[in-house]
Amino acid sequence: xxxxxxxxxxxxxxxxxxxxxxxxxxxxxxxxxxxxxxxxxxxxxxxxxxxxxxxxxxxxxxxxxxxxxxxxxxxxxxxxxxxxxxxxxxxxxxxxxxxxxxxxxxxxxxxxxxxxxxxxxxxxxxxxxxxxxxxxxxxxxxxxxxxxxxxxxxxxxxxxxxxxxxxxxxxxxxxxxxxxxxxxxxxxxxxxxxxxxxxxxxxxxxxxxxxxxxxxxxxxxxxxxxxxxxxxxxxxxxxxxxxxxxxxxxxxxxxxxxxxxxxxxxxxxxxxxxxxxxxxxxxxxxxxxxxxxxxxxxxxxxxxxxxxxxxxxxxxxxxxxxxxxxxxxxxxxxxxxxxxxxxxxxxxxxxxxxxxxxxxxxxxxxxxxxxxxxxxxxxxxxxxxxxxxxxxxxxxxxxxxxxxxxxxxxxxxxxxxxxxxxxxxxxxxxxxxxxxxxxxxxxxxxxxxxxxxxxxxxxxxxxxxxxxxxxxxxxxxxxxxxxxxxxxxxxxxxxxxxxxxxxxxxxxxxxxxxxxxxxxx
Length: 521
Known about the structure:
Elements (H helix, E strand, L loop, with lengths): L1 H21 L1 E6 L16 H7 L4 E3 L5 E3 L2 E6 L5 E6 L13 H12 L14 E8 L2 E6 L6 H4 L33 E7 L3 E6 L12 E6 L3 H9 L5 E3 L6 H8 L4 E5 L4 E7 L9 H9 L3 H9 L4 E2 L23 H10 L12 E2 L2 E2 L1 E7 L3 H15 L4 E7 L1 H9 L5 E5 L8 H8 L5 H4 L6 H10 L6 H17 L3 E7 L2 E5 L2 E2 L16 E2 L2
Parallel strand pairs: 1-10, 1-11, 17-18, 17-19
Antiparallel strand pairs: 2-3, 4-5, 5-7, 6-7, 8-9, 9-10, 11-21, 12-21, 13-19, 13-20, 14-20, 15-16, 22-23
Helix pairs in contact: 7-9, 8-10, 12-14, 14-15
């Protein structure tokens, strides 16, 4: 009887485990999720941090900013004071209270390492953080900065760790004691470089997730990830670059699986350096735009996953919907006429245009690990050759590409903006700032000084109408003078097994994709 009892207990436990596994979704990811610390950066993975830790405010479709841990907020008339009314009854995953005191403690820890977080504009403008009462917190700035609320929606560093997670000295930059957050998920099991399993936070204040567990399986090689998916070991392949676009199209064609493509998350751009003699003339920059078939290139290179971009920022971002910039359509004759007008003539018997004895020769730099950039570079090389423009293409490692761009050591470079919830203010700030490559690239613009002035002014605006007018003027002028050329709208892809239901992409580029997801066998 004792043996029978043990056997029956074992069977019961086994059945229970199978049932749990049935309600566990497995996603493949190329690298370890990293330290679950809300206040630090790489190698911690953004989506994983967002599963456990939450913001005061969330970024939703179309750039709408909605209550999260803050139920509501008020901004003073001068734009300097932000008063947040915190959601009542919220508990951390260990059962402790979320309140204004713990919000301040998190802000204090972050501000102790302000230099680490200075890339966020509002960080450098914080004057004071104060507890008004248990459920009211106030953030005071030294000057108005309208993107403050939008920047509070980013995944890191302003998300909230429970008291038990703080080290004794309070310095979270060196690590946390426990992964204690208010989010819908709790880290349950972890084996470095192999997997992380998150279980549902049964005390979550919001809508409970429909699945009980999320397993993040670390598979560095893309082909191996796809193979694991085809074997049924993985339920979801998700994210930018998780698999190649060719592989995505192959899996999309297989009725066994389901696929989704997101709204635009960023714009793939060409940045032309107007400090270079050949590109200083706007007519040359415009000719290069007219001289390649953007729609055909994007369709061919991305298999139709990305779409031709007519604007330097996607129109599903705040302040980007009604820009005045006119799309540049493919027109070889117009391109040739502009080059002739600019004095670049094609000598008889030669293939490259010349001016004052100098050839029309420029270099395009691309990330050697990025197949899309490489193929687009080769396409541009071939198309511009028919105009009489010699394009030299050079593939470099990403670190070198970034360094050369910042150092103004380039003719033409590939770039993509930061996406939601960072833009448009982050993109505009980067263009206006020294040391990023853009300010130098637009140096030949006739209205450069006025543009820079507008870009410095826009984050200080407290009037919504004035802000929209400034963004329209800035983004239109940046685009029409041709140093920043929109190529395509970058999108996220997802491939999942048929039992996965209700998959949706987050509006925030960096958030996890598990809200509302379900598994039905």
